[in-house]
Every structure is written in structure tokens, then in C-alpha cells.
Amino acid sequence: MKLSPESRKFIEDLRLYLFSTGKSDNEIEDIVAELEDHLWEAEKRGKSIIDIIGNSPKEYMEQFANEMKFDIKQWTGYGAMMILGVFAFVLMGDVINRDTDYSWFELIGYPLLTVCFLLLLMKTMKFLSGVRKKSVGWIVLLLISAIQIGGFVLLIWLDNRYGETVIHFNSTGNIVLFCLSALIFIGGSIWSKSLVLIVIPIFLYLPEYVLMFTPLKEDLQMVISHLISLLGILIYLFFVNRKENRFE
């Protein structure tokens, strides 16, 4: 079934809009599949996407959204997985760097920031579903990324300046933390049916860990590990995107 570029764009915008308003993935896919059939039949009869949805795509999307319930179970799962994922990344990095002392700033700040970013992400996706220019979408995503990074940088600064250690892990505790982080990554990959949460930690932390055993200077180790991590993640995402486009 080959839809016009305009219809495919609307389908993707609708999927993004419904997802950003907290609807069930299964319901979204059912509606999208039904709408694709409807649009295909209409286009065969010479009608355009405007003839089907009118001049206000956003109002058409809102009609679907208003008829669907918020899937609290699914989004509770997303929130929990994001919080666990953030902790897993932080803990694994800290274990490798032998820095497993934690303050209340970290214990409370990371979950709080994650929930705030999840809500911000939902609002952003809802906004992007109505954006026609890709350049605007990229600018918005860059701003959101900058806000996220800034939030974590601010948390680290506050922790370094005012934080006092309330939890300290010894060598045995570090092993437990590392295994716990690995289990979270594996569990998250199974839950999301994706290898992203396994591949990205490997590229982020394995080069750094291996280079620690080389005679290279610490600054050079950091530069090389960052380059390997960045290139590895970009290459992986390139092949994932290429694979997805092949099946469209």
C-alpha cells in the first residue's frame, strides 16, 4: 500500500500526537492501520488528504485523541523505566570511575529531573506533530536537549557545592551496583524490544574501562574514549535508521 507523501506525513504526525497525549500504543496502531486503509481507498478515487481531513489536521487529530483514554498503566511503565534507566547509566559510570558516594541531591534530583523531562517530552512531541517545517522541529529538539543537559549539569554543580554524602558503597557494593545496572539495561531492552539500552552503554563505558589499563595519559584516554563512544553510537543509530527505512 503506497500512500502519497502528504498522507504518510499526516499518519506520522497523528501517531506522534496520540502518543504524546498518553494513548495506548496498541490503540494507536489500530487507528493508524484503519486510517491508512481509508486514505489509500480515497487516493485511489483521486481524493487528496485535504478532502479527507479538511483544512485543519490538528482538529482532526484532536477528535481521535478525545475519543481515546489516557493509558495510565503504559505511561507509568514509561516513567518507571526512564527513572531506572537514568539511575543505571549514572551508577554504571560511577562504578567505572570508582565514585559511588551519593547525596540527597542525587537521590532525589535524578528521579525528579527524569519525571520533569518526561512531561516536557510529551508536550514537545504534541507540539512537533503540528509543525510543518523540519528546521523548526530540529531547533525545538536542540533546545529541549540543551535544557535536559543543563538540568543535569545544574544538579551536579549543586551536589558538588552543597551535597553531603549519605550513602557510600564499598568494593562489594560496587559489584552489586554494576550487576544491578546491567540487569536494568537488559530488562529495559526486553521491555522495549530494542537493543538500544544494551548497545549504547557498551559504547559509552567499555572504551573508557579498557583504556584505563593502557599506559596512555588520562587526558588522552578521555579524548579517545569519547571519540570511540560518539562514533560507535552514531554508526549504530545510522544502521538502525537505515533498517527502519528499508521496511517502510
Automatic annotation (TrEMBL):
One Pfam short name: HAAS_TM
Keyword Transmembrane annotated: yes
Domain HAAS transmembrane region: 89-201
Coiled-coil ranges from the UniProt annotation: none
Residues annotated as transmembrane: 75-96, 102-123, 135-157, 169-188, 195-214, 220-239
Keywords: Membrane, Transmembrane, Transmembrane helix
Name of the protein described by the UniProt record: HAAS transmembrane region domain-containing protein
Lineage: Bacteria, Bacillati, Bacillota, Bacilli, Bacillales
